[in-house]
Specification:
The chain is mainly α. It starts with a helix and ends with a helix.
């Protein structure tokens, strides 16, 4: 009988680990879906196809985060009343919100990290070089069709989604070490980049956007990044240290 208990304990531990990884994979797939939705909304104006997709979506009513709930509710309210002029109205508002009149760096919610982290609010500054190095360290680069700088919010959000896809694959393969590495990479990128400037941009977005879709986008973005910070705090649960240091 002495050999049975350890084997049973090992089996139970392995089963629990497998369950935990499966749950993490499912949650991460959901997180990546939100990152991609946000990225698409920031990347370019809404077209007819994407508007139809948005109208068909079911947004959660109560997530536990006030900003997320406000964002979803505001977007859903706008979509429910969107008429034949919506595409034109959204295109005009996209330009108003993210491009502006181009006179200075304060006339829109410019979706570039460099604008919000450089002293003179210029594009193509240190932040762009930093995120490019992070992308390439993971073997990623922007597509040839992408003409904007690498520190555009859409690309930063897509990077988080791409890491999420890899976390799902690693979790399904039972590669716990790779899961931890990728989670640490996500956490660091969120702290070093997205969380350091996006709240400033969304504050400007509320000032310049007039359509409910982009007003809701500002709230949804703020709330989702808050949820992500809480997620990583819970996952790591080590007072801010890396996973390896907390073990």
């Amino acid at each position: 009988m002495t050999d049975i208990t350890p084997v049973a304990e090992e089996t139970a531990a392995a089963a629990e680990e497998t369950t935990d990884l499966a749950a993490l994979a499912e949650l991460t797939a959901q997180r990546s879906a939100v990152y991609r939705l946000l990225a698409r909304l920031y990347r370019v104006e809404v077209d007819e196809e994407f508007l139809a997709e948005l109208k068909a979506m079911r947004f959660p009513a109560a997530t536990g985060n006030t900003a997320v709930d406000t964002g979803y509710r505001t977007i859903a309210t706008y979509l429910s009343g969107a008429d034949a002029h919506a595409i034109t109205d959204l295109a005009v508002d996209y330009v108003r919100a993210f491009i502006g009149h181009g006179i200075d760096a304060y006339s829109a919610a410019y979706p570039f990290e460099s604008v919000y982290t450089s002293p003179k609010r210029l594009m193509m500054q240190e932040a762009r070089d930093e995120v490019l190095a992070v992308y390439r360290s993971e073997g990623l680069d922007k597509l040839p069709t992408w003409k904007e700088a690498e520190d555009h919010i859409a690309l930063e959000l897509e990077f988080m989604a791409a890491l999420g896809d890899r976390i799902v694959a690693a979790a399904e393969a039972g590669d716990e070490a790779e899961v931890e590495r990728l989670l640490a990479t996500q956490r660091n990128f969120l702290a070093d980049h997205l969380s350091s400037w996006v709240p400033l941009m969304t504050a400007d977005l509320r000032r310049f956007a007039q359509c409910g879709l982009y007003q809701g986008l500002a709230s949804l973005t703020d709330g989702f990044l808050q949820v992500e910070e809480e997620f990583f705090d819970e996952i790591f649960d080590d007072g801010g240290e890396d996973v390896e240091d907390g073990e």
